[in-house]
Amino acid sequence: MSRADRVAELIKREISDIITRKLNDPRVGFTSVTKVDIGDDLQYAKIYVSVYGSEEEKKNTFAGLSSATRFIRGELGHRMDLRDTPDIGFKLDDSIERGSRIFELINKIHKEEGKRGPVKARKKVKCRK
User: Contact at 8 Å (CB) between 62 and 92?
Assistant: First the structure.
């Protein structure tokens, strides 16, 4: 594990704590920091955040996070022992929602197959070379 990976993991943990415990912006809803990408030079960190709620709640949450970026970066600087605190930017991570949607579709397919009976396996065909 490289130094950048270790720093990214620490940033993820600290920013999660800052958002849940220190940030008092009512616009910021239920959020989860899912990933942090940081360059080898440790100058800029992309913070991927998953937001639970409607599109309006997501929009409000990102507005709150954007306005609190300086505060979050300052808190991060106090908590971490780095020469320079990286600049941070927030990105929406919708992978949890996509995974949930795929899971729902798979369950729907299984329920429909249960009504029709088991699906018969297709006959294997040998390919010629």
Answer: yes
The answer to whether position 121 is within a domain reads: no
Amino acid at 42: L
Q: Which residues contact 91 (CB under 8 A, 6 or more apart)?
A: 46, 47, 48, 49
Number of domains composing the chain: 1
Q: Which residues of the chain have pLDDT under 70?
A: 115-129
Q: Which domain does 41 fall in, by range?
A: 3-116
pTM of the model: 0.73
